[in-house]
Amino acid sequence: MDEVFRALADPTRRSLLDELFREDGQTLSMLEERFSMTRFGVMKHLNVLEEAGLVVTRRRGREKLHFLNPVPIRLVHDRWVSKYAEPWVAGLSDIKQRLESQMEKIYEIYIRTTPERLWEAITDPEIRSKYNFGAGTTSDWKVGSPLNMDVAAHGVHLGEGEVLEVDPPRRLVHTMIALWGDDVKREGQSRVTWEIEPVGDSCHLTLTHDQMREGANDQIYGGWPMILSGLKTWLESGELLTTPGSLMYGASRTWSRS
Question: Does 107 lie in the same domain as 7?
């Protein structure tokens, strides 16, 4: 929390996050053009944001791309604000501009747990439903197998996909087709990649949601910060977060960690 607040205290760093919110996946050169400071100055601010977990980077060929990671901000929200939040309105207006280029979103979080326990929390439908808006994900987790996202208690089918890669407890890749409304159905198939890296007594979890069109409906990817912060809280404390997402299907707070 301290690193996040220190990083956000500087107006230039907040502006850098605004730029990545406006257009994710920018290079250092692209960001440098938008600020009246040296390349080294922009790099120093980006390093502070990266150390706080607010920015993550990915190599694409010779380029290093920078992505906004909203998960630490979501954790701040969950700690002090979520009890006052109202449930989200499920229906969103269609986005007017539809382009052919693809978009990706990258989220990362550190969780004090083992890789095996984290893998179980991702793949076990009963555990998954505790932090994933009440929805469990069922599959036999073999390459080529189908997966389904359902709120069993309410008979709601939210989505489906296909398992593409399985390397427990390190890497899981699957497709995703959202089915909870006509607006998201029109977005078609995207891809979700879970990567687990042990770090001391914790795990570094990186979630990449890609193969989406530029300007895709943000219902497709906008829930990940809540899901990941709920996953962290449950694994570390056995408690459930009361977030707008968790209230959508009346998730019970009587569940306990198995």
Answer: no
